[in-house]
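Researcher: I'd like a structural prediction for the single chain below. Treat it as a standalone chain; there are no partners to consider.
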Amino acid sequence: MKRRNFFRWVGASWFVSVLLNVTAAYSNQKGKSLSAIKKTVLLSDLPTRSDGFVVVGTATVLDQAGFLKIQIAGNPVLVIRDPAQKNTLRAVGQTCTHAGCLVDWNAEEKKLECPCHDSEFSIDGKVLQGPAKKALPIYPAKLENNTVLLKSN
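Model: Treating it as a single chain, here is the predicted structure.
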């Protein structure tokens, strides 16, 4: 094999591997624009109020992104507006109880979906479809004025 052909193969292989990684990284976003993907907030980095709740964001940001991502003791949590009750917030653990993959919120179908093995969960964490058998953990969340509050239990 000539040196030129060798470097062409190496370059093409590198390009394909980068393309696959970029595609995989954004495939779980289910059509959301990149501006809707928000940074994760660590609950431990935020001040706690006297009632045990922590301010984690605003309703404006929540509505723009469709969800807020929070970390509670290293566990990812999604904060979502309840589609049936617009003034009610739900905070649900994002780690699937089957194999530990991160579930995503499907706003169109109003359920949480695991991309690994197709488990589905309701907005209150209950299993709708397996293979997961255990519900997702839920956390107290509420909306006061334009402020999103979360309690780590």
